[in-house]
Design goal:
L-fuculose-1-phosphate Aldolase, alpha+beta, 264 residues, globular, 2 domains, 12% strand, binds manganese (II) ion, 42% helix, 7 strands
């Protein structure tokens, strides 16, 4: 806890213009410290829950300026501290770089925020149990109520459609736009041979969905190895269960946040 408080103070100090390189004017309102702390927690939760490892990133839209979002500098999510949180515009440009390295795939976040005003948080990961569903014909479907948000359908983005033969990375706005178009109005899109992107109206709900997309993929693979075919939640069940999740997901967030911020 002390470390987090210290890191938040450090970030505030930098924003107040006392940090190195602060001569550069940073326009617009500073993000609330509590949101920065939640974004730090989100990074650590996703690592703790096995969604991200050395790679992957999570972002949140700026609450006072819908045309910018917050995301860490290029660093493993488990190591993120408040001072690592940067601001970006919807073209993927860092607004306060101060010499910090940025994620190559920041365009995933930028273009989803541009396309989806309802989205306030985005997770991109190489969530391991999800990978098979991005390369096989079997669609990812809700195996249980906790993953009901998958019931609206889970599209698969094939980067070859927009980019031809690439290194599989969403390196520019054009590829980001193509991914956002594949996501459409859904909560999750898989990325063939790469990972997935998970979105939500809030940071805790996006994190919740990212965790349970991974868990559901594991469960679905296990069910498909049994005598089948599996009986998934149908569309109406999924819609009803998803509404219930809106009410209960903060219980999981509170638990996970406590785990990653507790004093040693
Ligand atoms: Mn990636």
């Amino acid at each position: 806890m002390k470390g987090v408080v210290g890191a938040v103070c450090l970030a505030l100090w930098a924003w107040l213009g006392m940090g190195a390189g602060a001569a550069q004017e940073r326009p617009g309102p500073a993000p609330p410290a509590a949101l920065v702390a939640d974004l730090v927690a989100a990074n650590r939760i996703l690592a703790d829950q096995g969604v991200v490892d050395g790679f992957g990133h999570v972002s949140v839209r700026h609450p006072e300026d819908p045309n910018r979002f917050l995301m860490s500098r290029s660093v493993a999510p488990a190591l993120v501290a408040a001072a690592d949180i940067m601001e970006f515009d919807l073209d993927g440009n860092p607004l306060d770089p101060r010499g910090r390295a940025v994620f190559l795939e920041r365009f995933i976040h930028a273009e989803i925020y541009r396309a989806r005003p309802d989205v306030h948080a985005v997770v991109h990961s190489h969530s391991p149990a999800v990978i098979p569903f991005g390369i096989a014909r079997t669609p990812l479907r809700p195996a249980y109520h906790i993953a009901a948000f998958l019931g609206a359908g889970v599209p698969v983005f094939d980067i070859r459609g927009a980019g031809g033969e690439t290194d599989m990375l969403v390196r520019d706005s054009r590829l980001g736009r193509a991914l956002a178009a594949t996501l459409g109005d859904k909560a999750v899109a898989l990325m063939r041979g790469h990972g997935d992107v998970v979105v939500g109206p809030t940071l805790p709900l996006a994190v919740f969905r990212a965790v349970y997309t991974e868990v559901n993929a594991r469960i679905q693979s296990q069910a498909m190895a049994l005598d089948g075919p599996p009986v998934f939640l149908d569309r109406e069940e999924a819609e009803k269960a998803d509404r219930a999740l809106d009410q209960i997901h903060l219980r999981a967030w509170d638990l996970w946040k406590r785990k990653v911020t507790a004093a040693p």
